[in-house]
Amino acid sequence: MTGREIPDEYLAGYDKILAEAADTGRRLTRDELETRRTLGEQAAEAGHTLRALVSAYLSATREHWPARSADTATGTDRVLAAVEHAVDALAEGYERAQRLAVRQEVADRREFVDDLLHGRSDLGRLAQRAERFGLLLSHAHAVAVAEGDGTYDDTHPVTRRVDQAVSARYGNRSILIATKDGRLVCIAPGDQADVLTHFAKQAHAATDGGRVAIGRPQPGAGGIVHSYEEALTALDLALRMGIDEPLLRAADLLVFPVLARDRQAMADLVRSTLGPLQNARGGAVPLLDTLTAYFDSGCVSAEAARRLSLSVRALTYRLERIHKLTGSNPADPMHRYTLQTAVIGARLLDWPSQAF
Fold first, then answer.
1. Which Pfam families match (predicted)?
2. What's the confidence (pLDDT) of residue 69?
């Protein structure tokens, strides 16, 4: 062992290289260079630092310096050139091992995230792998998903920016930030809602106004999948329902999956309630948009007219036309619930663009 605690096996043949370089001035052969690279890789894999490895080689250089080379400048140059080539090959091998280790770490993390968010793999093994990435699957977790105009992977500048912002504020709090299908994903303990809110704020800014959805806290590995799917559903609902909010919470949107659960019943309601609107001049879409604006504005005619860029008189005419065609009066509380539920169903089912 050297004074730097590097085993002698990593210095095998080095004294011979120095002696021959001093005698003949030859460069290291291809095999000798590859041997140093291999030794550098092995040192990295064994956990030795590059600094310690280079230090050991410099110590060995002093120890095995060929005495006759000290008599001439030429001999000294020959030895130093050999040292330079040997250390350079060592460093190259060491860095190669480091790059391979990083790539393997990235691949392992990617595989873990994919398995976790799809509910694949044995739960026991998944729990063991989760601890390596700072997650305790015995606890409840919630998942936030952010999407923007672009697609993001684990090395994207947006991903790194959000990760750094969250880590700077919360440090190591069993938080995992990754990407899936081009979206940013944050997994955090279920009792730390502030983490996901901060992630949402950072992701919204980093993606230039992207939208973020947060699933409900759920226990276990299966709970992470459930919360992730809730967040995805919330993003899809926002798109279909025309919801412009930058932050969506699955807990606030539970009524929509309930309404959509019986697709056939919802289709029947839309067809029987709103179907007559297709007989109107211009089709059903303008009147359906009128109902949407009317209900979204809390049934306030002036606000609905403003949203539609209509006069209140024109809006009133449209509402009367809807009443005449459907037999349901939007201004009548008895009829309003049925009409509003049918309008929600139409948006969920993309009617009348999609016939059923």
1. GGDEF_2, HTH_30
2. 55
Q: How many residues does the chain have?
A: 356
- Of 327, 236, 329, 345, the C-alpha closest to 279 is 327
pLDDT of residue 290: 95
Query: What would the two tokens of residue 273 be?
Result: 């309630």
CA distances for 233 relative to 145, 221, 280, 293, angstroms: 10, 19, 33, 23
> How do residues 40-93 score in pLDDT, each as one tens digit?
999 999 999 999 999 999 999 998 888 765 557 778 888 899 999 999 999 999
HEC profile for the chain? CCCCCCCHHHHCCHHHHHHHHHHHCCCCCHHHHHHHHHHHHHHHHCCCCHHHHHHHHHHHHHHCCCHHHHHCHHHHHHHHHHHHHHHHHHHHHHHHHHHHHHHHHHHHHHHHHHHHHHCCCCHHHHHHHHHHCCCCCCCEEEEEEEECCCCCCCCCHHHHHHHHHHHHHHCCCCCEEEEECCEEEEEEECCCHHHHHHHHHHHHHHCCCCEEEECCCEEHHHHHHHHHHHHHHHHHHHHHHCCCCCEEEHHHHCHHHHHHHCHHHHHHHHHHHHHHHHHCCCCCHHHHHHHHHHHHCCCCHHHHHHHHCCCHHHHHHHHHHHHHHHCCCCCCHHHHHHHHHHHHHHHHHCCCCCCC
- Amino acid type, 291: L
Catalogue all structural domains in the chain, each as residue range(s) with its CATH number. Answer: 8-102 (no CATH), 132-253 (3.30.70.270), 257-349 (1.10.10.2840)
CB-based contact 203:210 (threshold 8 Å)? yes
- The amino acid sitting at 71 is D
| Tens of pLDDT, residues 212-268 | 999 999 998 889 999 999 999 999 988 888 888 899 999 988 888 777 778 888 899
Matching residue, tokens 């412009």: 244
Q: What is the pTM of this model?
A: 0.67
Comparing C-alpha atoms, which of 286, 270, 285 is closest to residue 318?
286
Q: Please give the Cα distance from 274 to 328 (Å, whole number).
A: 10
